[in-house]
Amino acid sequence: MTSHDSATIRPTVAPTATQGTIFALLGVLSFSFSFPATVWALDGFGPWTATGLRGVLAAAIAAVALLATRAQLPQRSDWAGLGVVALGCVVGFPLLTTLALQTSSTAHSAVVIGALPMATASISALLTGRRLPATFWLAATAGTAVVVIFALAQNQGRPTVADLYLLGALLLCAAGYAEGGRLAGHMSSWKVIAWGVLFAAPINLIVSGVAIGYEPLHVTPLSIAGMAYIAAISQFGGFVLLYRGMGLIGVARASQLQLAQPLLTLIWSVLIMGETLTLAVPIAAVAVLGCIVVTQRTATPKQAPTGHRTPQKIGRSG
To answer: DSSP string covering 101-117, please?
Structure first.
């Protein structure tokens, strides 16, 4: 490889991977506040009302964005994938985790996020047929085990009824993440979730309309703040960032960054929700970060020789 070739490749490959990682990390940070914000929303809204309203408000934001940019309708071949995004990320995960948070602490509920990266990478590998090295799976499994054990330990390892909700939420969200990341390979990342929330809007309108008549409302400033966050960030903005990252660096690699999400949620549960912090937090954080480093390196495709480099497929901007 000549110096000219090297100089030509660096600006197109390295910055893309770096930008993708940054986008994915910002998405993870955004989602790490979701459980505390959901608890705030439940201070004034019932679980079904909160789920329906967050979807309706997110759809309104998405509609304004799509109209302002004069976005075209997605291709028919993408409708099924967007349906999976809508069912998993816009309806299923918010509803089931909100129901779980009625009886489970934010720390215990973080277990669902601990297993999410592994489930997402597995579903993505099945959908795409991509083979990841054994080192990737070992590191991902180890990181998931650390997070799950740590999250359960915060609740003395006792399973709750909410675990059934969390398991269902895990599977649905993993499918939505995998499909959303795949679609972000040829669609603008923000349009993936924008169309996803619009696809789910009719369901959320019905849910919120019916639930408001049955669930009591005690609107407070805290519940409004929580609702605003889960609608604008958890249901829309965070996905824009995460899907953009997935479109740039791949679903498997970006999803492993989510191993840090439950630990961040646990930190917020201490700082914001007043839960007790244990010495296990920094220990688990170091272990998980080590696993993330391994998965990041092993999931990165090797660069092709000069003159035969396969161009990367990234999502269109806008």
So the answer is: TTTS-HHHHTHHHHHHH
221: number of Cβ within 10 Å = 10
Query: Domain residues of the chain, as ranges?
Result: 20-298
Write out the chain's pLDDT in tens, 318 residues: 454 444 444 444 456 778 888 999 999 999 999 999 999 999 999 999 999 999 999 999 999 999 999 999 999 999 999 999 999 999 999 999 999 988 877 877 777 777 787 788 778 777 777 777 888 888 888 888 887 787 777 667 666 778 889 889 988 998 998 888 888 888 888 899 999 999 999 999 999 999 998 998 889 999 999 999 999 999 999 988 988 888 888 877 787 787 788 888 888 888 888 777 677 777 877 888 788 778 767 765 544 444 444 444 434 333
Token pair 């914001």 is found at 272
Q: Please give the Cα distance from 83 to 253 (Å, whole number).
A: 23
